[in-house]
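Query form — protein Reverse transcriptase domain-containing protein

QUESTION: What is the three-dimensional structure of this chain?
INPUT:
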Amino acid sequence: MNQLLNIFNGSTIFSKIDLCGAYSLRRIKEGDEHLTAFRNKYGSYEYLFMPFGLTDAPASFQNLVNDIFADFLDIFVVVYLDDIMVFSSSEEEHVKHVASVLQRLRDNNLFAKARKCVFHASSMEYLGYVVSSDGLRMDSSKVQQILNWPQPKNIKALQSFLGIANFYCCFIKNYSKKITDLTSLLKEDSPFIFNEEACSQFPILKEAFTTAPILSHFNPSLPTIVDTDASDYALGAVLSQVNDSGKHPIAFDSCKLLPAELN
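ANSWER: The structure tokens for Reverse transcriptase domain-containing protein are given below.
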């Protein structure tokens, strides 16, 4: 996902287009219709267009939109399934870019949900992140969800909490180190006991999300620095760049050491 979001350097204006009935617009390859056959009391039927739920439906649709926007991708368009982001460095340029995207959709008989589209905004929520000229930040509603999460009472609840927290791990310095006592409780063959260490780490992890910085867009023309860190059980790294106002983080990364790596 992060690979989709590292191309916005220099962009100041954004639009988002949500496609309508996207999957149902993808024609099943002629001769393969029988693979979707089903039967009910009225008879046997086969889909001519791709129904939602097929295993390869997302990949097939992604290939379709990638082909349609091939000459726009990573220049002023990024597409993830039925979510299209248009980005530009100026208002004048953006008008042309949006018009080109809408015309390409019309040419390929794809349609947008008007109520879910946003045009010519200085910041934009996209795929769980908020994008602006300053960089990437976390969606405040998702952060609030993390802050309001009650203390997990079983493995499933802890897995759910870590699922949403892990999504934003690139914003948190030494994230893997901060969740070590929590992930140690995920062993299926052990009773779930939210011990003293986990009770201490849980609010500390939450607090980290309230102080996470905005991640600057990567600029290939600026000096780039990688700072590394290590403890007895985890590794961490920070990718930063330096501009006239100082040093700014681009991304954080970390990992917990495996048992074999601890030796």
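ADDITIONAL NOTE: The longest strand covers residues 246-256.
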